[in-house]
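User: I'm writing a short methods note and want a consistent example. For Alpha-1,6-mannosyl-glycoprotein 2-beta-N-acetylglucosaminyltransferase, I'll paste the sequence; you return only the structure tokens, no commentary, since I'll be parsing the reply automatically.
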Amino acid sequence: MAGSYRKARLNNTAFRRLVLIAVLVFILLVLLLRQNSIVTLIPNYSAYENPRQNELSISLRTRNRMPPRNSDLYPTLAKDHIVIVLYVHNRPQYLRYAITSLSQVEGINETLLIVSHDGYFQEMNKIVESIGFCQVKQIFAPYSPHIFPDSFPGFSPSDCKDKDETNCVGTKDQYGNYRSPKIVSLKHHWWWMMNTVWDGLRETRFRAGHTLFIEEDHFIYPNAYRNLQLLVKLKPEKCPNCYAVNLAPSNVFSRGEGYDVLVAEKIGNVGYSFNRTVWRKIHERAREFCMFDEYNWDITMWATVYPSFGEKVYTLRGPRTSAVHFGKCGLHQGQKGKEACVSDGVMRFEVKEIDRVANIRSDWGVNVYEVKDDYRAGFKGWGGWGDVRDHRLCLYFAGMYSNFR
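Assistant:
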């Protein structure tokens, strides 16, 4: 009897082991199949080849790896610092004003300022090198059309110039126009910068928190950084579904409502900030971003990327602006001879005492301005982005740092 009992026990134990092994094998197979299916869904952006480089392009890539300046003056960044990225083109008059305003920002010395250049321009570089109020890191877009004067991504002698021209190189956009290097540079620089800041730079590629993005024609109020820190802290509570925070209203002509309430609205293109989670969602839409026939990065985001998230995309901001867009000239007009690309009232912004200190409170409620579909289904873009070479370069940027992700 005892022997039969022991035999039955052994049989039950062996059976349980077999069942356990079978379950483990099944789980392993499911995980392997799932992993393979995920891998097949990830686009192989690294398959797109980068353009032929020239001497300047190679030297700029080397400069991009240099450590930040002023580390001896500001050896320690604040624990809760928010990196600021200032992206610039070739408008030195504007840049001087933007830098002057940044120098007055409370807390600017606690963080890292990254200046992203669209190409290399000596005067712009000189202005940035004069900054002494915080740590500064410069990066230069090595594939900017501005550093390729006679080949792609710049203008090649064999490129099509006129829409009626034949026997030339180029792909027309939806309106029958060939590419303009200065125009496409707008979108290329923004996308290259985003990929580089989030995934390429040693200083930032492991940061999960928010990063603030501003341009050379933005006047930044003294309280901007402190307000930004408050908004980032309040967002999970006040607007958990918000994707970003903004220093300015989405309407660039507005200076804010002025009353005691936070605002949730459409993401604006002046002083916007988001975290790595949002960047991951944006990067997943790289193909949509790169293939949409629209030369403006912001309109591309509003018309294709944000709508693909499956819900309205909101940002959180305060009732008084902490950043103002003052540019009157296009990004790539720069200087024409002796004409300065700056309007007469650039620096006539009134900075009141309330604009010098943080003016956002945690006990305020939130007014929601419904995000409207400015670019409804069927909007095809304003063109300027139809050349397949630009599509490929854009997709190459999406895969530059795949090894770091």
